[in-house]
Structures are given as structure tokens and as C-alpha cells.
UniProtKB/TrEMBL annotation:
<protein>
    <submittedName>
        <fullName>Dihydrofolate reductase family protein</fullName>
    </submittedName>
</protein>
<dbReference type="Pfam" id="PF01872">
    <property type="entry name" value="RibD_C"/>
</dbReference>
<dbReference type="InterPro" id="IPR024072">
    <property type="entry name" value="DHFR-like_dom_sf"/>
</dbReference>
<dbReference type="InterPro" id="IPR050765">
    <property type="entry name" value="Riboflavin_Biosynth_HTPR"/>
</dbReference>
<dbReference type="GO" id="GO:0009231">
    <property type="term" value="P:riboflavin biosynthetic process"/>
</dbReference>
<dbReference type="InterPro" id="IPR002734">
    <property type="entry name" value="RibDG_C"/>
</dbReference>
<feature type="domain" description="Bacterial bifunctional deaminase-reductase C-terminal">
    <location>
        <begin position="7"/>
        <end position="185"/>
    </location>
</feature>
<dbReference type="GO" id="GO:0008703">
    <property type="term" value="F:5-amino-6-(5-phosphoribosylamino)uracil reductase activity"/>
</dbReference>
């Protein structure tokens, strides 16, 4: 069974997965890089990094996926749809190496990149997008890659099997929150937490199987 999984989704103590306003110069708005400093310190990110608890969680981001789904605001800054030359933030060889589905209300033709990533642009419901990604994933899992709006929508639609969040000890106060509308999420998931010496808390949500 191909699972839908979320990994390394970093949130502030107050639940924001990005700050504001998002722009070309500041993709995470006033959050800057603070949500991901824990990850930049790991071996997953940098060969000279630390191989501890944070690394063990971070590495799962790359394991067992045959496709990714992301939102329009992860793919580019506001207005990228007006730029025919915009090909994402990641350069000619993006780090996905699979078919990657970008949800947008203004789709464009697919874009084949180096290294196995092809961006497909979809205006579809979360369920239909997941079905398309599963078809492309060749039996492997589908990563729901964010941002927080897409994570929230897929969780709300009951489509996510496993979610790994990283709670960073900062309070952003504004931005895009993942929790809104997800009341009593713990009823559907087993929730576990692991504290890291770095100061972040890893939370995993694993969907309960029907009794
Ligand atoms: N904290 C983390 O770990 C993490 C991870 C990934 C990304 N991020 C950051 O999060 C930010 C983006 O998050 P976000 O919540 O603002 O936006 P997002 O989830 O990336 O994208 C939301 C947008 O995608 C399009 N969309 C979503 N569902 C759709 C559907 N079913 N059909 C068609 N279009 C759909 C809509 O854009 P249009 O209407 O414009 O088409 C919507 O406004 C960026 O700063 C990114 O870098 C953070």
C-alpha cells in the first residue's frame, strides 16, 4: 500500500509553518530561516553536520518516496505564475528526483528537470491529486511536501497516513498555521513526541488502523 506521508514539517510553538509576507527575498517572511535551523545542522543537510536524533528523523524525508505533492506557495514566491521562466527555487536539479505535483489554480505544462524531477501542475482536489501522484509513484509512498496550507488540507481530508512535525521553540505570532480546523486530530492518530538536545520536539502522528 502506498502511504501518504509528511516529513520535516517545521512549525513554531504557536503552530505556524511559515511567516509572512512571503517574497522572493524572504520565502518564509518574518520567520527567516528560524524554522529550519535544526535541519541545517544535521548530516542529512550537510555532510559535515551532526548525526544525532534530529538527523535520524530528517533522513526519513528521503526514504521510500515515488512522488511529491506541494502547494503553489512552496513552488515559488507570490506571482510566480506570471513568470513563464520560473522553474522553482531549487535550480536545474531539484532535490525531489521523482514526479512532483504542484497544486495551483493556474496550471501550466509539465517541466522536466535534471535528476528525475518532473514538475506537473494540477488544479485538483486533494483526493484527486493524491490519486494522480500514487499512479506516478509506482507503488512507493507519496510525500505531502507542504506548505502548511496543503498539509492542513490533506490532513483535514483524511488523506495522510503519517505526519512528522518538528516543533521549534520560537513564537511567530503570524503566518500560516497548520492547526486551524483540525480539532481532535488526536482521535484519529497515535501521537508520539521525542525531545531533541537541540531544543526542538519531534511529533509523529500515525493513523490508527480500523479496529
Ligand atoms: N515549515 C516547513 O517545514 C515548510 C515546508 C514546506 C514549505 N514551507 C513554506 O511554506 C510556505 C508556503 O505555504 P502556504 O501555506 O503559504 O502555501 P502552500 O501550501 O505551499 O500553497 C497553497 C496554494 O497552493 C494552491 N493550492 C492549494 N491547494 C490547491 C488545490 N486543491 N487546487 C489548486 N490549487 C491549490 C493555491 O494557490 P493558487 O490559488 O495561487 O494557485 C494555494 O494558495 C512557503 O514559505 C514555503 O517555503 C514550509
Amino acid at each position: 500500500m502506498s502511504l501518504a506521508r509528511i516529513h520535516n514539517m517545521s512549525i513554531s510553538l504557536d503552530g505556524f509553518g511559515t511567516g509572512e509576507p512571503q517574497s522572493l527575498e524572504a520565502p518564509f517572511g518574518h520567520a527567516g530561516e528560524r524554522l529550519h535551523e535544526w535541519m541545517f545542522a544535521t548530516r542529512f543537510w550537510d555532510a559535515g553536520g551532526i548525526a544525532g536524533v534530529d538527523n535520524a528523523f530528517a533522513e526519513r524525508h528521503g526514504q521510500g518516496f515515488g512522488a511529491e505533492i506541494m502547494g503553489a506557495n512552496k513552488f515559488g514566491p507570490p506571482g510566480w505564475q506570471d513568470d513563464p521562466d520560473w522553474r522553482g527555487w531549487w535550480g536545474p536539479n531539484p532535490p525531489f528526483h521523482t514526479p512532483t505535483f504542484v497544486l495551483t489554480h493556474r496550471p501550466r505544462p509539465p517541466m522536466e528537470m535534471e535528476g528525475g524531477t518532473t514538475f506537473h501542475f494540477l488544479d485538483a482536489s486533494p483526493a484527486d491529486a493524491l490519486a494522480a501522484a500514487r499512479d506516478a509513484a509506482d507503488g512507493k509512498d507519496v510525500r505531502i511536501g507542504g506548505g502548511p496550507t496543503v498539509v492542513r488540507d490533506f490532513v483535514a481530508a483524511g488523506l495522510v497516513d503519517h505526519m512528522h512535525l518538528v516543533q521549534v521553540p520560537i513564537v511567530l505570532g503570524r503566518g500560516v498555521r497548520i492547526w486551524d480546523g483540525l480539532e481532535a486530530l488526536e482521535d484519529a492518530y497515535d501521537v508520539e513526541t521525542v525531545s531533541s538536545p537541540s531544543g526542538v520536539t519531534h511529533l509523529t502522528f500515525t493513523r490508527r488502523t480500523a479496529a
